[in-house]
Design goal:
By secondary structure, the chain is α/β, with parallel strands linked by helices. The protein folds into 2 domains: about 160 residues, SPOUT methyltransferase, trefoil knot domain (Alpha/beta knot, 3-Layer(aba) Sandwich), CATH 3.40.1280.10; about 30 residues, no CATH class. The strands form 2 sheets. Strands 3-2-1-5-4-6 form a 6-stranded parallel beta sheet. Strands 7-8 form a two-stranded antiparallel sheet. Strand 7 and strand 8 form a beta hairpin. Helix 1 packs parallel to helix 2. The chain is globular. It starts with a strand and ends with a helix. About 25% of the residues are buried. Bound molecules: S-adenosylmethionine.
């Protein structure tokens, strides 16, 4: 399947730490391969995402980039498709089929989520401006819904290779398998 990356615009180190972390966690748990962050450089944020990947597996990566414009330009030059999530766009049910077809045909997708203020140019550089309802809400909710509709729920049963920890689903209580030989088992975290 083609690649899905998430571009988070305009991270602010103090105000956005929690919400940008949630964007990265949602991107990983909902089947994206990578999160690219622009705005304030925040090494602590990257490290916390890397710790999640070390413990819970998969090959998800997180990185900072200085220029969102260069990220979008490079993505398009490489033949990928750029989707900007905005409440002003075409509502998801009316456009997701077309985007899914491109993705299934091999186009890598870059999904952009904004912060407080999104530069107007983003609306023109994107191939698609997509709304998850034409009502204001949250970049985390918009991202989760978009990724879920794109993959039609299949991302929820995905396996995460090289995990140290694996949850054994329970109808009540918590059961976590600590995989043999992992740092979590030996205490060397
Ligand atoms: C605090 S909101 C800002 C709302 C902004 N005026 C807009 O263009 O959607 C931050 C981000 O959440 C996402 N967002 C909020 N509501 C959305 C919606 N209904 N559909 C898609 N994305 C949304 C967008 O990526 C937006 O840049």
């Amino acid at each position: 399947m083609s690649k899905i990356a998430v571009l988070r615009l305009g991270h602010r180190i103090i105000r956005d730490q929690r919400i940008t972390t949630h964007i990265a966690l949602v991107a990983r748990a909902y089947g994206a391969h990578e999160v690219i962050i622009t705005g304030d450089r925040d090494e602590g944020l990257i490290k916390s995402v890397e710790r999640v990947v070390e413990r819970w597996g998969g090959d998800f990566t997180a990185r900072f980039e200085g220029s969102w414009k260069a990220v979008i330009r490079n993505w398009k030059n490489a033949g990928g498709t750029v989707i900007h999530l905005t409440m002003y766009g075409i509502n998801l049910p009316d456009i997701i089929g077309e985007i899914r077809e491109k993705w299934k045909a091999g186009k890598d997708l870059l999904v952009i989520v904004g912060g407080e203020k999104v530069p107007g140019e983003v609306f023109y550089l994107a191939d698609y401006n997509v709304a998850v309802s034409n009502q204001p809400h949250s970049e985390v909710a918009a991202l989760a819904t978009f990724l879920d509709w794109l993959q039609e729920g299949k991302e929820l049963t995905r396996e995460y290779p090289n995990a140290r920890l694996k949850i054994i689903p329970q109808s009540r209580g918590k059961k976590v398998l600590v995989l043999k030989g992992s740092a979590d088992e030996t205490g060397n975290k």
